[in-house]
Design goal:
By secondary structure, the protein is of the alpha/beta class. About 35% of the residues lie in helices and about 25% in strands. It has two domains: about 15-165, 3-Layer(aba) Sandwich (Rossmann fold), CATH 3.40.50; about 170-310, LD-carboxypeptidase A C-terminal domain-like (Glucose Oxidase, domain 1), CATH 3.50.30.60. The chain has a seven-stranded mixed β-barrel with strand order 6-10-9-8-7-12-13.
């Protein structure tokens, strides 16, 4: 299922900022910085006045930006707006509640397709927009990360190049993790996925992700044994039986040695028949390169060596 075509931003285009998940203690001050950044790039930031609000005890307990109903309503405003792009302020937790309300209300946007940008918890909304309407989606830093400079300058620069149309294709170097990935092969498909836990929590919902192409996963703050448990469940259920290839991005867990997580991913790769690869620099690290989802992609692997993934931005 291919995504709707999306053309790059032009000077003066609007970017609608939403907070479908969590907020931060200094959210309003950080939002101002983000708006200044968007204006400096030649675009116009939009956001609703109640993007952040205090109120219900559950909001404080879970760190939500606003109530479920308010966050869903604002996301619907963004979908119906005249803006060319929707940029999520932050991830955290809460997007599944927004998706559930959109589904319950049987909401259908009146406006033209818009690019949804974000990652982590936003994975759920990426899947929802693609499954429901085939809208364009971009796995990339949330806006707050650019505002507070928590991602590398190279990642930010590459993202702006994509949004402005100065870069139309992205290339990634992949390392093979199993024998199937070490064979010479060409795979032409699309990439779908995002955050591992959120992708798995989508099983059985109206926004369950397609898994018949190249599947991508990244994760943070999940211990190796928890990742092993999730991957074991995926393997036991055959949830990825139709995947043409699987690519793991960054799996980050505090002080856990990288080698420990590598062992978990390698163990899974060794027990699955489709090619499994790993790519560095996509996920929750300082380097977080943009990855277009549901656009044409080509995975090229040589015999016994590293592979390349080339993904079209539009």
């Amino acid at each position: 299922m291919m995504t709707e075509l999306w053309s790059p931003l032009k000077p003066g285009d609007g970017i609608y900022i939403v907070a479908p998940a969590s907020r931060t203690e200094n959210a309003l001050a950080e939002l101002k910085i983000c708006c200044d950044l968007i204006r400096a790039k030649g675009y116009i930031p939009y956001f609703h006045t109640d993007i952040f609000a205090e109120g219900q005890p559950l909001q404080a307990a879970c760190g939500f930006a606003n109530s479920d109903e308010a966050r869903a309503l604002d996301f619907m405003r963004a979908l119906d707006s005249d803006c060319r792009m929707i940029w999520c302020f932050r991830g955290g937790y809460g997007s599944d509640r927004v998706a559930a309300l959109l589904s319950q209300k049987n909401f259908h946007p009146k406006g033209s397709p818009k690019l949804l940008v974000g990652f982590s918890d936003i994975t759920i909304l990426h899947h929802y927009l693609h499954v429901k309407w085939q809208w364009p989606i971009l796995h990339a830093p949330v806006l707050r990360q650019l505002g507070i400079n928590s991602v590398s300058g190279e990642s930010a620069q590459e993202l702006w190049k994509i949004l402005s149309g100065h870069q139309t294709q992205i290339s990634f170097s992949l390392d093979p993790l199993n024998s199937a990935a070490s064979c010479k092969q060409e795979i032409e498909s699309t990439v779908m996925g995002g955050n591992l836990v959120n992708s798995c929590f989508g099983v059985g919902t109206a926004w369950e992700m397609p898994r018949d192409g190249i599947v991508f996963f990244e994760e943070i703050n999940e211990a190796p044994y928890r990742i092993a448990r999730i991957l074991q469940h995926i393997r036991a259920t055959g949830w990825l039986r139709d995947a043409k290839a699987i690519i793991f991005g960054d799996f980050i867990h505090g002080e856990t040695p990288e080698s420990a997580m590598d062992e978990v991913l390698a163990e899974f790769a060794g027990k699955i028949s489709c090619p499994v690869f790993q790519v560095k620099g996509i996920g929750h690290g300082v380097e977080n390169r943009p990855l277009p989802l549901a656009t044409p992609a080509r995975l090229s692997a040589a015999q016994g060596s590293s592979a390349t993934l080339e993904v079209s931005a539009f």
